[in-house]
Amino acid sequence: MKLELSEIARSYSVIWRIIGARWLVYLLMVAGLTLAYCAAIVIGLYVRDELSYDRFMPGSDRVYLISASYGPSGQPLVWSDRTPAGVARWMRSDMPEVDQVARFDTVEWPMRTARRHAKERFYWADANLFRVLKLPVLEGDPDTALEKPGSVVMTRRMAIAYFGRADALGQTVTTQYGHRMTLTAVLKDFPANTHLDREIFGAGSSVYSKLYNYDGNGDFLWPNSYTYVTFKPGAKPGILAARLAEIARKRWQGPNNLPDGFALVPLSRLHFQPHGDGELKPRGHLDSVFALIVVAAAIVTLACINFAGLILAERNERTAEHRLHSALGARRIDLIGQVLREALVVHVISAGLGLAAVERLLPTLNAALDIRLDLWTSPLGLLLSISAAVIALALLSGLAPAVLISRPQHGGLDHRNDIASMRWRGWVVAQLALVIVLLTASHTVSRQWSYATQGALGFDGDNVLMVRFSDTPAINAKFMAQVRALPGVVAAAESFGAPTNDFVRPGWTLRAGRPLVSLTRNSTHPDFLRVYDIPILAGHNLAGTFLFPETPREVLINEAAVTALGFRSPEAALGHDVEYETDRTLMRSRIVGVIPNVRVATIYEPMQPMIFDNFSKYFTQVNIRLSTHDREATIARIDALWRQVSEGSVPVERRFFRDYLMQQYHDLHQQMVVFYAVSAVAIMLSSLGLTGLSIFLTRHQVRELAIRKALGATFSDLFFQRFMPFLWPFLLTNLVAWPVAWLCLQGWLKSFAEHVALSPWSFLGAGVVAVGVSLATIALQSAATARDFSVSSSLRHH
Amino acid sequence: MPLIRLDDVHLNYTDTERTVPALRGITLDIDAGEFVAVVGPSGSGKSTLLNVIGTLDRPTRGRYAFEGHDVSKLSDNALAQMRAARIGFVFQNFNLIDHLTVYENIKLGLRYRRDHLTGQRDLVDAAMDRVGMGHRADHLPRQLSGGQQQRCAIARAIVGNPSVLLADEPTGNLDSQNAQQILGILNELNARGTTVVIVTHAPSQADQASRIVELHDGRVHISSRRLS
Questions:
Q1: Interface list for chain A against chain B, based on CB atoms closer than 8 Å
Q2: A236-241, long-range: CB within 8 Å, 24+ apart, which pairs?
Q3: Average pLDDT of the segment spanning B95-110
């Protein structure tokens, strides 16, 4: 049969009139589905963002980052994203399967033009870097841009910052020691989902670059460069990684820090690899992505079930209409088609509203999660995928009620209503269980986040400002000479780096007669303990600092190191000598004090045994504890002092330890926000579902309520008549939800080396909140029903 | 003192667009023990009058006294209690609860009384026997004929021994044989002292009442007592 356009339009205009006439039920349908579409789109964007890390670079799936593991006796203890600079050279000469291998290393030097003067974080890169990392280019030739010493390549954003325009090839920036670098190419701006955290590449062939220095000095063999490789067709990366280890052993010239093994990490999967030593962006966790996909699917499923239930309730109201259709010759397929058309209209409206809500919410969400999700990166793909989802979900959610409604009425409508009511009640209970699981998860993630950023540290990092040293020792010395005396400064101490990840500097320590162990090393001023409020458990603090001779005379260790070195107690470790590895040699030192375990890595990794020396050669920053009183004024004084001692030549680079820590736990914070948001959505959906169920029951039971009221039932009788059937199922829901939540959370917590214990209060609180909100919803509906309906009318019309 | 006294009672139904007067100044006394038939054309206000007497609807204006108590001054809960203890309802479409058995439906007539009647089982059994439904105690409504369902509804209405039984076209959905049976039961209840007010279209049924009240356009047109 040929359908005319006007007839199709007419059938949809009828649907509009139906929606208009029964707006309350349709409002509930649209509200629930809009929430679900909104949550699903946001989660979809987040998942797409996570799964497409670095994919903006063409051919990224062919690029591998070489990761190295270090550890004595063949046991990898530390994985590093960096490899010794020589590895690239060895691969080029000893591995014919290699197509391209290129490196970069990080640097922080001042950069200056007439428009901008900043201490810039950038890379020294090999000339062929852009043949490996195919970063989209706007200006210049990427194949030759870094060949000439003194060349520099920037993103469009940085080019505009330094030169005021993107087409600035040939312009120069002045960097450390007055070196001038010439812009030879401009790259398209990077998306947020890349492991690259710097946007400027300097030519590694420049004589003042670290790469040039490494290549000219055979001793620079510790892990210092990020090495990327592509292979010729047919090469097997797994086998080549093993061969690389053999080559490294053959070529190695250093003392103890030989990489134990290598791994070739595909760039497209780098984001989900465990965090390695290095300065690449904090990683994501695939488990979290899967968890979010499951949560999105659950939310959409529940919204569809609510929708199906509401369609059923609304359609039961129109029983007479269906009978009339049947009497006029409508086949079952016609009735099913009508329900599905209505379902499609509601889903389209909801998806549209959901999309609009996401567009509106994204800026807030991006700010809260510190990400850059973009709805319209690929408009056609987005619209096609949403359209496909809308059609699929409309069919799925509309089919069950359509089949049920169109079924010939054997056994009476009331009987079918009973079954539908029971099923719906079952799904509402399942929905409530999901809310309890999500709330328990949210609270546990929040506790774990709080533990990671507070309890797990073992020190007090609040109100500690970290100021990075310049490359000019005289400036640093002048600054240190005055900073302690500034009003508002409680204590200040130099150190190698900040506590936590970029603080990791693995080394091997030998106690006479025992095997080598891996200890994480830091070099600190004695006041470091005061700044971070770390007590001494045994012995005494380091005495002063020294630059020469290189061998430090005394060291502190932490409790984990006491155990790792085989001492019975902190006291037993005092006075013992240990040897530990430096750049060039093993150095002998005496343990003079023991401190508690302080966290140097994230809680994804186990507590590190640590060793502290007072070798000022390695100091890179000063840690300043500020008084809580008038902090802003103190910071202004510190900035002023830096300007004064550097005579304006080097911009101050500072940040609070807590900000740094937040960056380390960025993904955990995201998970916490997402879980709370999703829990809120689930609660709203649950309430909508309950409201729908309540409406369904009201319509189904209105005659019974009217009879009871005619027989003398009071408001409270009717209220409890409606309310009580929900009470026990809701309370019993906890018995289902708690074990599920326990199992899920146990699994999640196992991804951490250290974690909080699951608290019964999380479960109980989630149960109370979820059941409380649900019962309140039912109570409100029950009260409204008991109060508002007309007995006489209800008894006459049923 | 009459059992029921209506004095210039008005009731308007209001929706968003208009107000429809259903009762326009009804003044009517019903004494205890009377059997009153309310008759009149469709839309004349018969059922509305019954709902007002049964306290299911409140008058918009006018005074209604039940057993001397001014109903307009009673709270919703007090009215509910009055219905539970003093008023029995029988409807044209029976209004039994589908998932309750005959016994449970009848017992529902005692459920909302606050005076905690003792021996409820005996009262339910007695009510079932009075309407001849003792043998169907465990049946569900859908397993009964129309006449049986209505007898069950009458048993539910009288199980608490109400002062007045209000029946809104109780035989409207029944064949003549069942209708006669139901009317017989109502007569018997009246003979035992229960005041009965019945809304009916059937002149033959109205003729069995001790008084006929005829309504037109929400007003009492004729109120005539039959000579006994």
A1: 412, 414, 418, 703-704, 706-717, 791-792, 795-796, 798
A2: A237/A64, A237/A264, A237/A266, A238/A264, A240/A95, A240/A97, A240/A264
A3: 87
- Closest A-chain CA to B110: A711
Domains of chain B by residue range? 32-55+86-225
Joined tokens for residue A650: 């080097």
CB contact under 8 A, B82 and A714: no
Q: Which residues of B touch A798 (CB under 8 A)?
A: 93, 95
Domain boundaries, chain A: 1-53+295-408, 60-270, 424-456+664-798, 464-663
Chain B CB contacts of A720 below 8 Å: none
What pLDDT score was predicted for residue A84? Answer: 83
Residue A615 DSSP code: B
| Architecture of domain B32-55+86-225 in this structure | 3-Layer(aba) Sandwich (3.40)
Is B142 in Cβ contact with A412 (below 8 Å)?
yes
Mean pLDDT confidence for B73-85: 87
Predicted confidence (pLDDT) per residue in A73-118, tens digit: 555 566 788 888 888 988 998 999 999 999 999 888 889 999 988 8
Nearest-by-Cβ selection for B77 from A707, A710, A715: A715
Neighbours of B216 (CB within 10 A): 14
Q: Provide the residue type at A537 as one letter.
A: L
CB contact under 8 A, A711 and B108: yes
Count of CB atoms within 10 A of residue A508's CB?
A: 21
Q: pLDDT of A251-266, one tens digit each?
A: 766 555 566 788 899 9
Whole-angstrom CA distances from A478 to A118, A133, A418, A523 are 20, 42, 83, 20
Q: Can you read off the two tokens belonging to residue A728?
A: 């026990």
Alpha helices in A370-472 (DSSP H): 379-406, 413-450
Q: Please report the sign of the dihedral spanned by the C-alpha atoms of residue A444, residue A448, residue A454, residue A455.
A: positive
Query: What are the tokens at A225?
Result: 């460069």
Quote the minimal CA–CA distance from A744 to chain B in Å.
41
**Identity of the residue numbered A123:** Y
Name the CA radius of gyration of chain A, rounded. 33
- Residue B153 phi/psi, 5-degree rounding, is -65, -40
DSSP H or E run through A153? strand A151-155
Chain B CB contacts of A795 under 8 Å are 56, 91, 93, 95
- E strand intervals along A217-364: 223-231, 259-266
- Picking from A87, A117, A120, A114, the residue whose alpha carbon sits closest to that of residue A102 is A87
CA of A414 vs chain B CAs: smallest distance (Å):
8
Contact B89 A711 (CB under 8 A): yes
Instruction: Compare all CA atoms of chain B with the CA of A704 and give the residue at the minimum distance.
Output: B97
Q: The pTM is what?
A: 0.70
State whether ipTM is beyond 0.90. no
Q: For residue A397, give every residue at least 6 positions away whose Cβ sits within 8 Å of its Cβ, in sequence order, or none.
A: A304, A305, A307, A308, A311, A343, A347
**Residue A411 scores a pLDDT above 70:** no
